[in-house]
Amino acid sequence: MTANHASLLGWLFVFLSTAALYFGLSKLDPGNLNSAWPLLAFPALVLLRLVFNALDGMIARANNAATPMGEVLNELGDIWGDTICYGILFFIPFVNAFHLALFLVCCWFAEFTGLLGRALPGHIRRQESVLGGKPERSLLFCVFAVICFFAPMTAMYINQFLLVLTVLTFLTGILRIYKIRKQTQGLSYQSHTLYGR
């Protein structure tokens, strides 16, 4: 398997997990749990997405084939994967669009602050989390999906669930900013723009 193969498989599982979340929630029926079986497949598909997402970078580094563009595509894939997977909830009638949009904005915020650490002096990709990093968000969504399958009425609390996740993701971004501030203390820094320093 090459790094590109792993990346393509990662994207395949992005779309499969997105479909599982949508069809599982849209077909929830307390009287017929079998109709919502995709919710049980969702955790396995998310796990495979995360595995292949990590595997592409590991293969590239092992083969000394890591490139800057590969890292750019990997980071964009992370955030776009989350946006697609959770953005499908806009099509679920009982999901509050504002709550979901706020959550997605905070996802972008947390990932962007993580990348800023790499761009600033010290050059560390910040991974700190207050249960709001990509793996933690994925895990919490998986737990919620499984609970919804066995207790369908729980799905009606998805907006409150999104608000909790939004707060955790926002706090994750704030924590990463704090860590970047500590990381850059005492180090020289020059700002570069299109028009020069």
UniProtKB/TrEMBL annotation:
Keywords: Membrane, Transmembrane, Transmembrane helix. The keyword Transmembrane applies. Pfam families: CDP-OH_P_transf (PF01066). InterPro entries: CDP-OH_P_trans, CDP-OH_PTrfase_TM_dom. The chain crosses the membrane at residues 36-55, 161-178. It comes from the Bacteria. The keyword Membrane applies. This is CDP-alcohol phosphatidyltransferase family protein.
